[in-house]
Each structure stands twice: as C-alpha cells, then as structure tokens.
Write a structure and sequence with these properties.
EVE_domain, 5 helices, 138 residues, EVE domain-containing protein, THYN1-like_EVE, 25% helix, DNA-binding, 6 strands, alpha+beta, ph1033 like fold, PUA-like_sf
Length: 138
Amino acid sequence: MAYWLLKSEPDAWSWDQMVKAGAKGTAWTGIRNHTAKLNMMKMKKGDRGFFYHSNIGKEIVGIVEVIKEAYPDPTAKAGEPWVCVDVKAVEALPRPVTLAAIKAEPKLADIQVLKQSRLSLPAITDAEWKLVRKMGGL
DNA sequence: GCCAACGTTGGC
DNA sequence: GCCAACGTTGGC
C-alpha cells in the first residue's frame, strides 16, 4: 500500500465536505500538473492519503482512502491528458498536524510535501505516514 | 533546444 | 499583499 497527501483549499473543498460526501466519496478532479498526475496514476484502490488544508489552516486534518483508480478527469478539455481518482473520508485526526509541526520535526526534513511545496499531490513514505499519524493522535 | 517572460501556487 | 518556487509559453 502506498501513501499520499491531497491538498485542498478549504474554500474550494474542505474536510467537512469530504466527510459529508460519505462512503460514495468524491472525484478528485482539477489536477493540472504532470508530477501530480503521475502520482495519481500510481494510486491503487485502498491506498490512503492525508487530507491537507492549504492556505487556510495549513494543516493535515484527516485521512482519505482511494476508492477508484485513475480515470479521465471529466473537468478536463477534450484531448487533454488529465486524470482523477475517487476518494472517501476515513477518519479525522484527533489533533491536526500543522505545516509548522511538520517543519519542526527533523525526521520529516525530506518529506516531499516540504521539498516540493507547490506540488498538489505529493507522495508520503511508510515511515512518514506512521509518524504523522502518531503526531495527529492516532 | 535554450532561455526570458509570465502565470500560478502557496507560505508568510 | 508580497514574494519565492517553479511550471509553461513563446521568441530566437
């Protein structure tokens, strides 16, 4: 199983909306970056991801699960190569993990989230996943 | 194929 | 609101 981080501006799509979407989840559309696209195409059903609020909050607030693997993004123009996946909310973190906390943790110095801060869908390693979960109170 | 200009993202 | 990072576009 692989791990990911999904960024969303809560103004556009928040964790609350993700939870309300329930077991049906939502299509993670709108990715327009090739690195993020490649990550998305690696995502398998059952993979988990952190749900991160960018700009407002700047913290990891929950965990989502991939329920449908990459397929053509319906919001892309015809002929464009973009894809999306479906994800559903799994559980909230008892204590959100802020960007500041990630930066302050020496073991997370190499996390892709920090290395490529503009990437909207970075990968998370097994070790990083376990550590951030623990920092979040799980 | 290189690189400057420009647009966008996201942290501060 | 500003700025750094960085992806994309377009001229050469």
